[in-house]
Amino acid sequence: MQIKKISIENYKSFQFKTDINFPLGDGHNAIFLIGGMNGAGKSSIMEAITYCLYGCKSEEIFRSINRKEKAKQNTYVAFELTMDADDGSELIVKRSWTAGVIDDPRPKDLVEKLVVIQDGKRVSVQSNDIWNDYLKATIPQSITQFFFFDGEKIQEIASDDHSEVRLKASLEAALGIEYINILSKDIAYVKNRAKQNFIEVTDTDIEYKTVGIKKEQKNLEKMVKDRDELTSDLSDFQKKLDEARDRFQTIFHKEPETKEIIRKNEARRAQLVVQRNQLESEIKRLCEEYLPMSIAGCLFENLKDQLIKERESLKNDVIIENAREIAQKIIVAINEPEPIYSEVLNEAKQEELVNRIYELLRKGLSGSSIAKTLNLTERDSSRLLNQLESLEKSEVFMIPPKIEEKREIEQIIKQLDVSITSGSASESEKELFDELQQDIEGCSTQIGRLKEQLHKVEDEISLIEKRIKDMESELDKLYDSYSQSKERADFITECDTIMELLSKYIIILRKNKVAMLKEKTFEMYKRLSSRSDQIKDLTINDETYEIKITDKNGHEIRKSSLSAGEKEVFAISLLWGLAQTSQIKLPIIIDTPLSRLDSSHRENIVKNYFPNAGEQVVILSTDTEIDQTYYSILKPYLSSAAKLEHDKKQEITVFSEGYFWEE
After folding, report:
1. Confidence of residue 76 (pLDDT cuts 50, 70, 90)
2. Are 166 and 160 in contact, with CB atoms under 8 Å apart?
3. Would the pTM of this model clear 0.85, i.e. be above it?
4. Where are the domains of the chain?
5. Does the N-terminal peptide bond of residue 593 adopt cis geometry, omega within 30 degrees of 0?
6. 85 vs 51, 121, 320, 586, CA distance in Å?
7. 296 pLDDT exceeds 60?
8. Continuous segment of H or E residues that includes residue 529
9. 274 in the Ramachandran plot: left (φ > 0), alpha (ψ -120 to 50) or beta?
């Protein structure tokens, strides 16, 4: 993959849209040199490429908006990267941030937008996650740090004795081992998903279920045989019963009755006799207790009327006898405690009023007097009335219905007597009667027993048939599950086999890759180091990635004991070794790589590293790093050179062709 162009707009000192075209070399002249003084925007170019590919936090973008444009509340920041992919297609990535037209925008207001165009056609990218997944497969961010780096990255690797151990994950990504690890984890995940709710079905399970079905089928055969025998016996007894019934009816001209019916009839007759006797006793008791009084029952109403009238007449007589006294009490009630009338009656008028009340009471009640036929006292009248009412409510009136009930029971008893006995039959007929009754009863008993047994057998047959049907259904499911189980079990076994192979492959791949990394790193280190004649070997642990340098005497040289220049040389050698070993075709972008190096190391890097760094190399340098001397060394390898000029007054960076001293 090679970069053709990067466009930067409203980012840091790039106020206006700036297009930087990357010339493509032919392999020999692959270096694009971009010069710029400190603060001119060299780092902004590398940041623009990285942010365009992978995005950036809104806070970082908001801090980097060009100050003049931010003062105008213009928050629009845009990057556009044009690349030639390895498959020959042209890929354009456009990423922008804007807060729109709002007052006093904040970082959280920035909205990110992504557009991807491949060979002139816009690619549907629904979210950054999808695009990032694509980048992980093509340009993993974890490895770009080994292709897009600056002096700080070199120092980070150089200053730590165990930096390569700390960078193990990134190193494995660059060497292609990370993908195998991810594949192994994905297979493990798929395997675990396959094992969820997995119930393995074996041949033993199917055999056990098949044996169970055969056992039930044998039971069914036995039960069917028993049912056939019972049906045959039942048919024989039914035939004998029909013959005995026909003979009985022919001889005795009536339907035969079983002993059970006869026993029931006898029991019923005995019960009815008891009821009849109880009724006779009850009727006798009622007659003894109530019959004398019940004879006079027709006179009760007249007697009651006479008693009531005589009682009322006695009350009137009492009032008439005491009429004068009552009249006087009425006068007293009129005047006391306070006279009702305003006019007070004198004694003569009071006497006249008493006489009038007396006459009124006497005449009014004298007409209701009747002849005293019974001439009883009040007490005797009450007692006689109570007795009459008790008689009316007594059981004396139950005698007729009880007599009728007794008559009906006696009629039923007579009918049962005829049914139970053989009447006036002869002794021989009675014997035949009993014999036929016994035959009928015996056959009926056997038929009842056989029907009960047959019913139980048929129920058992139904249960066995249902069990067989359920077991056959379960067996069908077992066969289905067996096929699926075998497939899943084989799949899980294959996953285990693949994971084991991948594990072995990772070990072999890591050894081969680490061996190649060691070879390439050591090759470049010997070219670049000023102490190459003192170094005997460089080894890399294929598990921890720990690097050891040994001198010609076999003693280990710790990185911390190296000079600053040697440390940076070692770091650059490791980066070159990674680029060569990974076989990933990415541009090499180096920002100010020589600032901390002495002249001897600088010359080695310029002569031996830059021309061999990659198929496309972009160097971002100041005029003191790649000066005229080093420029003349690099010139045969340059595809082009350019510079960034920063106007401090305008606070703007302008890109132009030609290096510092070239027009």
Report:
1. very high
2. yes
3. no
4. 200-455
5. no
6. 18, 15, 145, 10
7. no
8. none
9. alpha
